[in-house]
Amino acid sequence: MGETMLHIRDLNSHYGLSHVIQGISLDVQKGEILGVFGRNGVGKTTLLKNIAGWVKPSSGSIRLDGKDIGGSEPDAINREGLAIVPEDRRIFPGLTVQENLELGLLGLKGPKPVSKLDPVLERFPRLAERVRQPATTLSGGEQQMLAMARIMVADPRVVLIDEPSEGLAPMIVAEIFAIVREMRDAGCAIVLVEQNIHEALAVCDRFVLIERGTIVFEGDAEDEPTREKLLQKLAV
Ligand SMILES: Nc1ncnc2c1ncn2[C@@H]1O[C@H](COP(=O)(O)OP(=O)(O)OP(=O)(O)O)[C@@H](O)[C@H]1O
């Protein structure tokens, strides 16, 4: 049995009168990737935003390594060791690659040494070559790499990633998923929202399927009959 890093119980969340997250409970262990699947508009992004503190839950609990973070401010949650790579990547186009990476240091609790960028730049040579360029000069794939690299600067314990493969060429998608695996192998607990089901199943350990804000099916991503059932339910 692994060490539970993210523990969510009976989470509910609304946009006005719209009840978007309806009683979701899930756990993610250290060194595990949980895939979150479902059609457009079922609440996947809203679930991530609740965990990261961008949207407030109406009720329910969210614990990070045992500590209650439900309803806390995003920067406080970030300093507890939870980082999010949002769907729109949130790269600041007018800032250089280096400056965008330095923003990742805000996720550190104490001092924020720029030396923390060194191992990350070693891992991403294409970004290292471009540290002084404005981020706007990067390709879509490089911007996704930058978004991933930026969270790695602060060694997060829990990582939420929203549709990283969207709009990217297959070779870049493979690179991105290789990085997700590396983070998992380094001990991160990862929640991965993906529409690219076949690619995502190859990297996830477990998955949940969401329909109208509720988990309707879940299982082990390595179990062939379970995967088949998921693909049938999604009709892909
Ligand atoms: N800021 C908002 N205000 C009001 N309604 C919203 C807001 N953001 C999302 N919604 C609605 O909440 C529902 C869930 O949206 P969400 O983005 O979480 O779904 P999703 O499963 O991530 O879909 P997608 O794959 O299209 O991103 C949708 O009906 C959406 O229109």
TrEMBL record:
Family: Belongs to the ABC transporter superfamily.
One GO term (biological process): L-amino acid transport
SUPFAM superfamilies, per database record: P-loop containing nucleoside triphosphate hydrolases
Gene3D superfamilies per the UniProt record, alphabetical: P-loop containing nucleotide triphosphate hydrolases
Keyword entries, A-Z: Amino-acid transport, ATP-binding, Nucleotide-binding, Transport
Protein name in the entry: Amino acid/amide ABC transporter ATP-binding protein 2, HAAT family
PANTHER family per UniProt: HIGH-AFFINITY BRANCHED-CHAIN AMINO ACID TRANSPORT ATP-BINDING PROTEIN LIVF (PTHR43820)
Residue ranges of every copy of the ABC transporter domain listed in the record: 6-234
GO molecular function: ATP binding; ATP hydrolysis activity; branched-chain amino acid transmembrane transporter activity
Native species: Roseovarius pacificus
